[in-house]
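FORM 7B: Structural annotation worksheet

SECTION A. Query
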Amino acid sequence: MLKRMKHIKFLVTVCFAVSGTICVKAQNGSDYFNQAENLFKAKSYYEASVVFEKYLATEKHSRPRSTPFAIEKKVKGKTNLDPHQEAVYQLATSYRMINDYKKAEKYYKESVKFRETAYPDARYWYAVSLRSNQHFAEARLQIDSFLQIHTQMDELLVKADREQEDLKFIQTQSERVSDLYTLEEIKGKDNASNYALVQRENGFVYTKIKEVKEKTGEKRYMNTLVESMNSENPLLNADTLDIPTSPEIHDGMATFSHDGKKMFFTRWTKNNNQTVSYIYTSRWENKGWTTPVKAPEPLNAEGSNSAQPSLTTDGRYLLFASDRPGGFGGYDIWAVSMDTSFEPIQVRNLGNVINSAGDEEAPYLHDKTRTLVFSSNGRVGMGGFDIYYAKGSFGMNDWEKPMNAGAPLNSSKDDIYYVSTDEDDPWNTGWISSDRSSECCLTLFSVKGNNAKFVQGNIVDCKTHASLSNVVLTVTDLRHPGVILGKYKADTAGRYAFLLHNSAHFKISLSKPEYNPTSEDYNLQIRPGIDTVNNESICMEAVVYPKTEIEQLLKKLDQSSHIGNFAYKKARLNNYTRESLDSLARIMKNYPDLMILIEGYTDGIGGTKYNLALSKKRVDVCINYLISKGVKAGQLQGKAMGKCCPIAPDTIHGKDNPAGREKNRRVEYKVLNHLQ
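SECTION B. Predicted structure
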């Protein structure tokens, strides 16, 4: 796609994507060599590496290297060059261009023994490969040696100076305490590359590289957007985002409005190693995404690439990367102001404080702290793309000097697409994409700050102030209702204590037989290390059950058993269903001995097994929601009913009846027992 393809990580469409058929029927070395040279010139680097390897393997059994076939080069120092040397050097370069630095290091190591005038940059790229493979000491020796030999004032010297500064910076990072964060690679069921994760409502959307097999048996690798509701591991239970597209189009790097109904994403095509990208939009309507539309100017600029859109939380600005005219380097970060309908108004470059002579990509704004986070390969860092951050203002376009996020957020490989999942602290929890553990491709990592809170307190009777023993405490995340952080029990003296990691906003819910459930919310500040929190006493009120009140309540509950309905093939709660569950939760918390059975139903479309599984998901989401609101799990039972017991016909006179099917996709409850 881009002019600087080797640097643009988000456009890598495959780890090693073979775009054509490699001919391996050559009978002699010159055939292999010429074929590999042509592939190399066409920038088909993976294919070139295969044939160069074939040539070097057959070379061992061919005529002596002292009588090679001649290859004429109109380059100073390269006339009648030994083809072995040319093959080794170009093989190293091919591996580097497909980000396989381990193999590149092997062949650059041999290349540095060749004539320096023929391969002046071999030692530089050997140092880069060593650094990428975390052989920092040897990389430092090689780059120092290169700078002693290469004194010509050119772009290569500038790059070598930068590499030397990068290695010095890496040394400072290795000497600092790097246990402030824990990064964990997220793995799915396959080895596909997954990257650029963002949140959409209660789920996640990210870019996945999928293998597509042609009828001819050849393989293509396409980028596509997928969505997952699994907060622990988004790579599991993920479905392809149903966006109208065509086989030759890549889709990725999406961002969403606050309500999740407006999407901006990158759409690109690749022909003859030339990639062209634009930002597209789509809207969620009638339970599906509309046909994508290319965003108008000034968001897109004809003849230039625009990609990696990122909406600010308030929807007033959309950040993106572009190589359009008016920038300061390769790819710059730009911001476009948006109207209330998400139409672009005015675009501006974020300036030379943010943008360098290299590439700046993957912008993201942490709203509460107004911190701009992005990746760059044009600054002193740890190598490849590093993550940087700066605070500032879009209105004044005034930004502080960007700071490198340092290790372990950054590595000697590419680190990009950082997004935070904490509203208060941009670095407490989040997601990052990196190829630090891969020879070629980006993978997802979760980021967690290494901080903890030791919380302690006691529980008493509201009336007598006596300590209450064996009270059950359920600690949940205030920012993510339903996410249980832990369950604990007070001791015989009513005391409790627990340790929370990366959680400054939490709710403590208390339950004890013969006492009304109660809860307390806590909003604290995040501090590095372990912080001790001494809570004030929490009191619980004893339950009193007036007989007439109980009888009226049971009668009322029996009269209205409908909780809500669900969208086709979905198990997500809508606003009406949440309101019904909220009302039910208030009653059940007041009467902790009340027990109900929640029954889930589907419409008649689909098989019995599928519908039983879907109705169980609907039951489970209701039960989990009630528990998140403080209802005891022991008060709830669930039963999946599948497509049985419709309350309206799915068809009328043989024709589909959508209104009837919608009524049948429901959840109801029954009162099982009320112990006095």
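SECTION C. Observations
The longest strand covers residues 274-285. Residues 1-27, 63-75 have pLDDT under 50 and may be disordered.

SECTION D. Sign-off
Analyst initials: ____
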